[in-house]
Every structure is written in structure tokens, then in C-alpha cells.
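Submission sheet (multi-component)
Chains listed below:
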Amino acid sequence: ILNVEQSPQSLHVQEGDSTNFTCSFPSSNFYALHWYRWETAKSPEALFVMTLNGDEKKKGRISATLNTKEGYSYLYIKGSQPEDSATYLCAPSGGSYIPTFGRGTSLIVHP
Amino acid sequence: GAVVSQHPSWVICKSGTSVKIECRSLDFQATTMFWYRQFPKQSLMLMATSNEGSKATYEQGVEKDKFLINHASLTLSTLTVTSAHPEDSSFYICSARDKQGVGETQYFGPGTRLLVL
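Outcome: structure written.
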């Protein structure tokens, strides 16, 4: 089981603000990192999977970067909207290929 | 595509009874299914990994006789909490994967909230 830290634990922003949060993980024995969005009363939804150092993925207003050498990934949301309100989970995987989940960052976007 | 259902979404039971939770992949064949438990303000903790037709692999500290997992087909896995006690009250969520290997995505069910009285 990997030691995965996500920060901040929660975040309140105004509609239109851009925001970002961090996922930290051990840099050794890294294979892949997943980001999920989890809205209340719904299933977690896969956003990105990244494997290579320097990877950058984008989906609409959401993007993510990966630094495997120092063991972190950033998730960015540009121009936050109320529908972006959710918990964002990161899950790196090591040699077992089974991801370990962080506690998540709870984002609330106020209209 | 890639939808996973989980049933029931809520269950309240008396201490000592057993509860079965079903996890189904609706539009793909799940070679591997995972069962997680989440306590309040904690992360998703993997309980066990199951492959169709074989015994589940349990994580350290998870009692296999208490949490029975059956993965009888490529679209269905069940978790039975036997002789449930109040400390088993938690949020249980399953996920399924159709491929092995690095970076393969898991597709999650919506979860089951269990309350044992």
C-alpha cells in the first residue's frame, strides 16, 4: 500500500475561479496514476490515467500533470463551475498494478 | 459504456445477520473486480481483489471468513458480510476492470451504505 497524500482536504471557490490541487506519492516503484471525480450519490468517474514523467492530460477545463521523479501530480480546473463540485481522488499504482487511493480533495464551487 | 451497478444502495440490518451486496458490470466483462470500504473522512481502502472463477485475494487485516466474496461470472461479484456487527457499518463500493495491466481504468459502482444496529 502506497502512502498517498492529497491537499488541500477541501476547497471552496467562487464560480469562474481557477483552482488546483495536489497528489503526492512515493516516487519509487511507480507505474501509473489515476484521477477520479466523485460526485455525491454517484459513482467515481475516471478522469485521467498518466504513466510517463511529464505527462499532461486535458479534458475540457480540467487538466493534470505528472512528475514521477519527485512524486506528485497536479489537477487544474480552469474557470470553475458549480457542476465541478465533487471530490477529486488520485490513485497511484505501484508494482501490483492495483491503485491506492488518497482521501481526496473536496471541491465546492459557489455560484 | 462501462457501467457498474451495485445493489442495494442502502441496507440497515440487525447485529448478527448477514448482508449480501451485489456488483454487476452491465456492458462489459469484468476480469477483475475490487471491493473497497470507506470510513468517514477516510480514503477508499481495498478489501479484496477477485478474479472470475478463482478465490479472492484479501488485503492484510481483512477477515476472509467475515467478508465472503464470490465472483461467479464475468459480470457479477458478491460481497457477503457475515454475522454483521455495528463496527461493520461503513460504505462499501465495488469496481470492475476489463483488462489487466498498467494504467487500466477501474469502473466503479455507486456504493452501498451499511448500517448495523
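Remark: Chain B touches chain A through 25 residues (CB under 8 Å).
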